[in-house]
């Protein structure tokens, strides 16, 4: 039962981590992780929730340099985190998080557990 709860928890997670070190417009990510064991299908409720969450992360991180958020209900709830270093300007942070949100969808399509860093 503990293993099943862990699996369900992991299935409901999407994680976007961004570490910005300089102006990153059009820069390639330094790294990424796509957990191929946890997939969803295009057009599913979880996929839509991930898209919504990424939009929220972009919006909210640009004001503070950090945000952790969730979106959805019950088994379709997804979680995300975006963070920029303290020495990165608000504008550079916004550019970086926007790029990361786009890149993570392209590099980890239909993944519910993914990370990317710049």
UniProtKB/TrEMBL annotation:
Keywords recorded for this protein, A-Z: Repeat, Secreted, Signal
Pfam families referenced in this protein's UniProt entry, alphabetically: Stress-antifung (PF01657)
Gene3D superfamilies for this protein: Gnk2 domain, C-X8-C-X2-C motif (3.30.430.20)
Domain of life of the native organism: Eukaryota
Signal peptide interval: 1-27
Domain Gnk2-homologous: 28-118
Gene Ontology terms: cellular component: extracellular region
Subcellular location: Secreted
Keyword Lipid metabolism in record: no
Protein family (similarity comment): Belongs to the cysteine-rich repeat secretory protein family.
Record's protein name: Cysteine-rich repeat secretory protein
Organism: Quillaja saponaria (Soap bark tree)
